[in-house]
Each structure stands twice: as C-alpha cells, then as structure tokens.
Amino acid sequence: MNHAAGLPTATAAPPRPLLDVDGVSLEYKTPGRRVRATHRVGFQVHESDRYILLGPSGCGKSTLLKSVAGFIAPTEGVIRLDGNAVREPGPDRIVVFQEFDQLPPWKTVRENVAFPLLASRKFKRREADARALHYLDKVGLSAFADAYPHTLSGGMKQRVAIARALAMQPRILLMDEPFAALDALTRRKMQEELLALWEEVRFTLLFVTHSIEEALLVGNRILLLSPHPGRVRAELNAHQYGMHSAGSPAFQATTQRIHDLLFDLPTPEEPASDRHLATARRAAA
Ligand SMILES: Nc1ncnc2c1ncn2[C@@H]1O[C@H](COP(=O)(O)OP(=O)(O)OP(=O)(O)O)[C@@H](O)[C@H]1O
Ligand SMILES: [Mg+2]
C-alpha cells in the first residue's frame, strides 16, 4: 500500500527474461535408437547475465547450447528469445566454440571478423572493416589485423573468435568451453580478459564449462546439470566470486559444495536423510 496517498502501489511485473529455456528435452536419433541428451531442463537468462551451464561430460551442455543457437529442435519444451520461440540459427545468437580452427585460414584476422558483418548485408565494406578493427582493439589484437590465423597462438585465435562474435552485437553470446584447450596460465588470462570485456560491453553470456572453478570465476549464475541425460540439479548465485576471490576459503567451500551436488553427495547443510527430498524438490522447482 502507498500509505501516504492511501492507494495501492503498482507491483512491478518481473522483467521478462532475455532467454527462456522451458522444459527442454533434447534427443539424437542414431540408427536403431534414440539418445536422450537432456530431460526437461529449464532456466532463464536475463540481460547482462553471465550464465553458466556446468555439469559432467556427456550431460548435454553442448547439445543445450546448440539448441539455443537453433541447430537442434527440442523434442519437448520450448526455447524463447525475447519472447519468440527459437526455430533456427540467427545473428542474434553467435557461438564461440572450443576448437582453434573456427577461423577460415585464407582470410586475415580483420577479414575473418568482418566477414559475418558483410554476409549479413547490413554493412558496406568500409563500415564492416571499421567495426572489425574496433572489436579487434577490444580484444587487444589491433596489431594483428593483417595476420593470417595460422600465425597466431591458440589464445589469440580465441580472441579473434570472440571479437568476431561481439562485432555482430548478438542478443546473447554462446560459448562452449572456449578456453578448455588452452594451457592453465593462458586460460586464466582469457577468463580475466573476458570479464574485463564484459565490464566494458555488458553483453549477455551463456557459457558452458565442466570446470567448477571456471564457472565460479566467469559466471554470475550457475546451472548445475546431473549426468546423462542432463537434468537440472540446482541453480546457484556466483556473482560474489571473481578473480580476486579465487582460492579464498569461501571460494573453496563453494567449490566443494558444487562438487558434492554434482556427484550427489550429502552437503553439510543437507544431511543424507534429507538428500532425496532435496533432490526431488530441486527437480520439481
Ligand atoms: N551427434 C550425436 N549423435 C548421437 N549422440 C550424441 C551426439 N552428440 C552428442 N551425443 C550424446 O548426447 C549426450 C550429450 O552430449 P553433449 O556433447 O551435449 O555433452 P556435454 O555435456 O557437452 O559433454 P562434454 O563436457 O564432454 O563436452 C551424450 O551422451 C552424447 O554421447
Ligand atoms: Mg560439450
């Protein structure tokens, strides 16, 4: 109630999520049988979230990401972007993959970043080049604009792939273990750079990893998926963790808690007797 005026205050409607994954089951048809990759998975990503899909190998993370990208249709449920059902790939969802060979080797770095802009027919060559250089600058690669991909390190190739994706200004950037093939030091540096880039551009990110540490460092929300077929195990906040807190006691305690949740071990707050109830509650939530 608005006591001053004696009138009811309008209750603000919750903001509509940018991405709404609603009860999504995904399957592969192989000769002779169907493989269920995810079972009724649901989650919501809001504008400027850094949303993480975390789970063991084979739990359907990549399949979910491909489905959000529009490459695989759900057998059950629906995926909505800005309220519209996703039915096919589109420039509003760009994927960065793990592999270093995402860049056509016959194009220079600048041509690689400019190519999707030109292909979209929304930009003339000069505009596309200028925008490509702008985003290459953001990932610290202006000096390599005229280099060919084979002359770059793995980390530099991933920076080009990120610049190319961001240059398209997608509604949501989809990343599938983009740093998993890098050495530990480069990986940490890339995580830091991604966060710095996010501070500057505030894009919305859906990021797949099976590293608990990476999930806590990169994400502000984390969806935990159970092993094959992937189901929602829990959803956690992670905005309190960042590069500054890596390795702190709180960080380590959360890492352990996530580990226990992923492997269905009782956690300190969740005695064994309550475990099945809690699991059922989470599955129903
Ligand atoms: N093209 C395919 N045909 C048939 N089954 C597939 C195909 N791709 C994936 N699968 C199966 O679907 C399930 C989910 O696979 P997915 O690649 O999404 O897992 P993931 O969580 O990304 O694993 P990882 O962490 O190893 O990348 C697995 O059981 C896998 O064997
Ligand atoms: Mg995968």
TrEMBL record:
Keywords: ATP-binding, Cell membrane, Membrane, Nucleotide-binding, Transport. GO terms for molecular function: ATP binding; ATP hydrolysis activity. Residues 19-254 form the ABC transporter domain. The keyword ATP-binding applies. The keyword Plastid does not apply. Gene3D superfamilies: P-loop containing nucleotide triphosphate hydrolases. PROSITE patterns: ABC_TRANSPORTER_1 (PS00211), ABC_TRANSPORTER_2 (PS50893). Belongs to the ABC transporter superfamily. This is Sulfonate ABC transporter ATP-binding protein. The lineage of its organism: Bacteria, Pseudomonadati, Pseudomonadota, Betaproteobacteria, Burkholderiales.
